[in-house]
Amino acid sequence: MLIGRGLLCFFIAFMFKIKAHRCKDCGERLIGRSDKMYCDDRCRVRYYRSNNQLHLIKRGVDQILYRNRSLLIRMRENMKSITSTSEARAYWLRRKGFDFNFHTHVLTLNDGRMAIMCYEEGYLLDGNGVVPWSENHDRVKALIST
Ligand SMILES: [Zn+2]
Predict the structure, then answer these.
(1) Domain positions in the chain
(2) How many angstroms is it from 50 CA to the middle of ligand 1?
């Protein structure tokens, strides 16, 4: 008689009162040592590779967001010396390597305008240009905790 692997594991775990847990990759029920995390090497390697790829993507996005935030701070702090118009500011950001595809969130202001944010630093769209916008740290923390 054929018994499915999952059912067999459950039965063994039940009979011997072994704490059952699941493979981190495929979710299959595991029995045996309590520190066993994977069915086999294939699951272990697959889990490592998928997590490593995700880690590389996250690190790349973090670098872009960090650069965007730094440029927004520089633009806001040196607005008069760097740029004079909103169009010139957008051009300055682009020239410095700002990536307009990446931001952390969009903030709706009391007057209905939308601020595009990189953490607590952001900008408002103004025609073909941008106007710097920064948000109070406490308000950003409150947004994150809700
Ligand atoms: Zn597995």
Answers:
(1) 45-145
(2) 13
